[in-house]
Write a structure and sequence with these properties.
Helix content is 52%, strand content 15%. It is an alpha+beta fold. A hairpin with a 2-residue loop joins strand 9 and strand 10. Bound molecules: flavin-adenine dinucleotide. The site of flavin-adenine dinucleotide has 22 residues, from strand 1, strand 3 and helix 11.
């Protein structure tokens, strides 16, 4: 066992670290304030190969290991969580299409997605089905060579900005999870429009939109896999997605910790740096411990997925532990800065607002615990 990054891993980490410092960190505050979606930055990330991280080279991707992916997401999230999340969703969609799509579908979408010419979005949740995702109702009825879609999807990251939407829709009402099918909707299709944009606590530069389908005809050629395979495709995508969110949480936590540490050295009260007080030292020590533990869990889950081992429980552990830790660390970073932490002169209040959602999306942390417990105990009722 070797805990050091190899040369390739540290080279890619350093490249993304430089990119984040130049292209993301200086603008993150403004994007947050103005709710700006930085599409131009996605084009630059495509130039570094980051838009095709889950795609083979024959389709224009870079096919990084999940471990390398985790290193990339951590570095990006140190600059801004929202952009890292948008990229993670995009790569989740691209990877699903590359893996489950046929040759024609890969040619049609994957190459453009990997090149950053197209942006992807993933749509499982609905207003009445969040944690109980298999209860989704958005209906797709077969009519000749088309599916006809009626209904709506909620909470779609990259919604409105994305070109390619990986939808989970109901094709058989009576069949539960096995009545769900995966279909690609493209922006601009007749009968496909966008509903409300969510007004969120944080993650402001990541648009979260509702999708509306009214008599929307989508050719069967846009179906990914077989009818009834949609939920399986969604769950497979979420294993990788959860590891990415864990890595993003590590990045936000590290950024919050770094800000708190610097402040603790510089800020003086009672004629001493506040870092000299044990009350502050213990907070910083706990933060550092939890960041190290989170990072190792994320790396382990990524390693399991990379080596073809059963990874779902580890992905849930990594996501749950790292995001709970990051929420605590961001909150305590605000505490270390006192009043300065609560205002926008420092980024820690943004980290705290942004990171909250990591405990909620890609399966809430209660649902991660359900997944972990089921893996440990079996499906006892
Ligand atoms: C900013 C943002 C972006 C998102 N992006 C996407 C996206 O791109 N694509 C997408 O498909 N979805 C997306 N989502 C949706 C997200 O995945 C859901 O919000 C999440 O799965 C929770 O569903 P819910 O909000 O309906 O909560 P609910 O399912 O209603 O849960 C409410 C509460 O009950 C708890 N709960 C529910 N069931 C159980 C149980 N069995 N045991 C214990 N506790 C339970 C939950 O943990 C939670 O605390 C996004 C959400 C947000 C906020």
């Amino acid at each position: 066992m070797n805990f050091d990054l190899n040369d390739e891993q540290s080279d890619i980490r350093d490249m993304v670290r430089r990119f984040t410092a130049q292209e993301i960190t200086p603008y993150a505050e403004t994007w947050d304030e103005t709710h700006h979606f930085p599409r131009a930055v996605y084009a630059k990330m495509a130039g570094l190969g980051l838009m095709g991280m889950t795609t083979r080279e024959e389709h224009g991707g870079t096919m990084l290991s999940r471990l390398l992916g985790a290193i990339v997401y951590e570095e990006l999230a140190k600059g801004e969580m929202a952009t890292a999340v948008g990229l993670s969703v995009h790569n989740m969609v691209t990877g699903s299409l590359a893996h489950f799509g046929n040759a024609e579908q890969r040619h049609r979408w994957v190459t453009g997605l990997a090149a950053g010419e197209l942006l992807g979005a993933f749509s499982l949740s609905e207003s009445m089905s969040g944690s109980d995702a298999a209860a989704l109702q958005c209906r797709a009825t077969l009519d000749g060579d088309d599916y006809v879609l009626h209904g709506s999807k909620l909470w779609v990251t990259n919604g409105g900005e994305a070109d390619v939407y990986l939808l989970m829709v109901r094709t058989t009402p009576t069949k539960g999870a096995t009545g769900i099918t995966c279909i690609v909707a493209e922006k601009g299709m007749m009968g496909f429009s966008f509903g409300k944009t969510e007004r969120k606590m944080g993650l402001h530069s990541s648009p979260t939109r509702e999708l509306l389908f009214d008599d929307c005809r989508i050719p069967t050629a846009n179906r990914i896999g077989e009818e009834g395979q949609g939920f399986k495709i969604a769950l497979a995508a979420l294993d990788g997605g959860r590891i990415n969110i864990g890595a993003i949480a590590v990045g936000v936590a590290q950024a919050a910790f770094d800000t708190a540490c610097t402040y603790a050295r510089e800020r003086e009260q009672f004629n001493k740096p506040i870092g000299a007080f044990q009350g502050i030292q213990f907070m910083l020590a706990d933060m550092a411990m939890k960041i190290e533990a989170s990072r190792l869990l994320v790396y382990e889950a990524a390693y399991k997925l990379d080596t073809g081992q059963s990874a779902s429980m580890y992905a849930s552990m990594a996501k749950c532990f790292a995001t709970d830790a990051a929420m605590e660390i961001a909150t305590n970073a605000v505490q270390v800065l006192g009043g300065a932490g609560y205002v926008r002169d420092y980024p820690v209040e943004r980290y705290m607002r942004d990171i909250k959602v990591s405990q909620i999306f890609e399966g809430t942390n209660q649902i991660q615990r359900v997944v972990i417990a089921r893996a440990l105990l079996g499906d006892i009722r």
